């Protein structure tokens, strides 16, 4: 059962994905007809003026963050006109501020920044922008629109909508279905957005969250939260777990409790989760993607901005200021399409 609300969200998100696809392909399809759009839209994959891009992100203490960093580096290596300067990953906002100040002093052509704390890094990002260095903000937003030329985000609200829509399609005809939720860190806006999207999608098919616990994006936290949930809820029909890294612990708790009367939807898109889905022997039968390509997308966008180019499939003369990536649901039917970009927990 897919509702009008969910359809509207998914159609809008699909439109964004078309833009991102243009970013990846870097050129328009050849039809034999002349291209009447701006000339800087064509041949983005061709080598241009060499640009130095500074990249700084948090410490890779989480599978998803590790994938962010490695994908960004791999993306830069695709281009012979990109020189990537990588700062050591850190969870210390002050250290990251000093890294950005070093990029500014070195006169890089662009900075890709996944801030350990968006608010804390806002001032130094504005400083870079005022120095004429475009900043590409990834995943965690700054607190001022003047701090970034482009912001690349996963769709946290959309993750919730996608998870809720999938559950509605499976059990929406049962008004008494018990739906449980294992969130991430409740104090984070991203967790709040995911829960809000999930509740909105469930409401469209007459369901609601019956039992909810919060974890902390770690294996240990996921196991503890899931154990608490299972002890409190003797009957469950569906679970949405926000994060596949903590999902390793969630599945361990489920196995220890000997429970299998429900199905589970994960979140983020880890290889571990996709292997479980593909096996067909797990309660985990779907996961919602939160792209670990955001850093790589930031590198590709930084290159385009620094070279004065735009997205290949858009008529718009400049790179958009904000790109929100799609949150698709991965199931046994399409898992092979997503495994190549899955990250290891």
UniProtKB/TrEMBL annotation:
Domain Periplasmic binding protein: 53-309
Keywords: Signal
GO cellular component, as recorded: cell envelope
Pfam families per the UniProt record, alphabetical: Peripla_BP_4
Localization: Cell envelope
One term of GO molecular function: carbohydrate binding
Main location: other
Gene3D superfamilies with a match to the protein in the record: 3.40.50.2300
InterPro entries referenced in this protein's UniProt entry, alphabetically: Peripla_BP_I, SBP_2_dom
Domain of life: Bacteria
Extent of Polar residues compositional bias: 29-48
UniProt keyword Signal, yes or no: yes
Disordered, as annotated region: 29-49
Signal peptide range: 1-29
Family listed: Belongs to the bacterial solute-binding protein 2 family.
PANTHER family, per database record: D-ALLOSE-BINDING PERIPLASMIC PROTEIN-RELATED
Protein name in the entry: Substrate-binding domain-containing protein
Organism: Agromyces mariniharenae
């Amino acid at each position: 059962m897919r509702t009008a609300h969910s359809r509207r969200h998914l159609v809008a998100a699909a439109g964004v994905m078309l833009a991102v696809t243009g970013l990846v392909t870097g050129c328009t399809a050849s039809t034999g007809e002349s291209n009447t759009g701006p000339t800087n839209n064509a041949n983005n994959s061709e080598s241009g003026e060499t640009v130095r891009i500074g990249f700084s992100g948090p410490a890779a203490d989480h599978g998803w963050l590790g994938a962010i960093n490695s994908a960004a580096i791999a993306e830069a290596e695709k281009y012979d006109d990109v020189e990537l300067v990588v700062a050591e990953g850190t969870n210390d906002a002050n250290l990251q501020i000093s890294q950005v100040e070093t990029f500014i002093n070195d006169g890089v052509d662009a900075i890709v920044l996944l801030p350990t704390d968006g608010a804390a890094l806002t001032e130094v990002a504005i400083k870079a922008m005022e120095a004429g260095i475009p900043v590409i903000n990834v995943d965690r937003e700054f607190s001022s629109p003047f701090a970034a030329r482009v912001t690349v985000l996963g769709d946290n609200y959309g993750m919730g909508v996608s998870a809720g829509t999938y559950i509605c399609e499976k059990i929406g005809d049962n008004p008494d279905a018990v739906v449980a939720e294992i969130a991430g860190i409740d104090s984070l806006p991203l967790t709040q957005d995911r829960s809000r999207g999930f509740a909105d999608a469930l409401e469209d098919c007459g369901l609601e969250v019956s039992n909810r616990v919060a974890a902390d994006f770690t294996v240990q936290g996921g196991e503890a939260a899931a154990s608490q949930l299972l002890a409190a809820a003797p009957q469950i029909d569906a679970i949405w777990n926000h994060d596949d890294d903590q999902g390793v612990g969630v599945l361990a708790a489920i196995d220890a409790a000997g429970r299998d009367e429900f199905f589970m939807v994960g979140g983020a898109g880890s290889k571990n989760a996709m292997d479980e889905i593909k096996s067909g022997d797990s309660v985990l039968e779907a996961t919602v993607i939160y792209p670990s390509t955001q850093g790589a997308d930031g590198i590709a966008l930084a290159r385009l901005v620094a070279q004065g180019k735009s997205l290949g499939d858009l008529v718009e003369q400049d790179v958009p200021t904000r790109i929100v990536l799609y949150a698709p649901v991965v199931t046994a039917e399409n898992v092979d399409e997503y495994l190549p970009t899955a990250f290891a927990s």
